[in-house]
Amino acid sequence: MAVFFIVEDIVVFTGIYLIRFYHLIVKPLELIGNGMDLLKGQDFSSRLSRIGQYEADRIVDLFNKMMEQLKEERLLLREQNHFLDLLINTSLLGVVIMDLDRQVQSVNPAASRILEASAQDIVATKLDSLPSLLAKGLAETPLHESNTIRLSNASIYKCTHSSFVDRGYNHSFYLIESLTEEVFKAEKRPMSR
User: Fold this and answer.
1) C-alpha 34: how far from chain center
2) Cβ neighbours, 10 Å, residue 114
3) What is the model's pTM?
4) CA-to-CA distance for 95 and 86, rounded, in angstroms?
5) Residue 10 CB-density burial (10 A; 0-12 exposed, 13-18 middle, 19+ buried)
6) pLDDT digits over 84-139, tens only?
7) What is the mean pLDDT of residues 54-71?
8) Is the predicted pLDDT of residue 187 greater than 70, yes or no?
């Protein structure tokens, strides 16, 4: 009979130990796994619930704070990109953005008008393969320099070749500014002091 009570105590103790083990070890691991799933799915609006353990709740609070910051940064980035797209698309300057293979990645409406071709005809091609003399002049402009190109129809364009960093890579782009004869002469004149 005493053996029965000893075995029963061992079973009860083991059950309590397993429940405690589950709450101390397995539950926080499940919590971390759920957090990883949220990160993988890029669901930055979801939050983890506290479970009543000091260390696990610290991780939950840190995770929730990190998710809130990621959500705010993503929103800010979207707003900035939208604003930049609006500026580029309404700009009177032609903007031609190149990809890493030196092909046109995108053009704004002003660049399409200046190059006298639709965006579909320009995108995914190299500038020097376009029939426009201006496009060929753009392709010959060295990086981080400007070039003034005069076309046979008396149009004058100031073309600037520059670059920006996106995801760790330098992407080049061109700005095309239409100049009148007066502006061209004023730019050529030395500044008086």
Assistant:
1) 26
2) 23
3) 0.66
4) 12
5) exposed
6) 999 999 999 999 999 999 999 999 999 999 999 999 999 999 999 999 899 999 99
7) 86
8) no
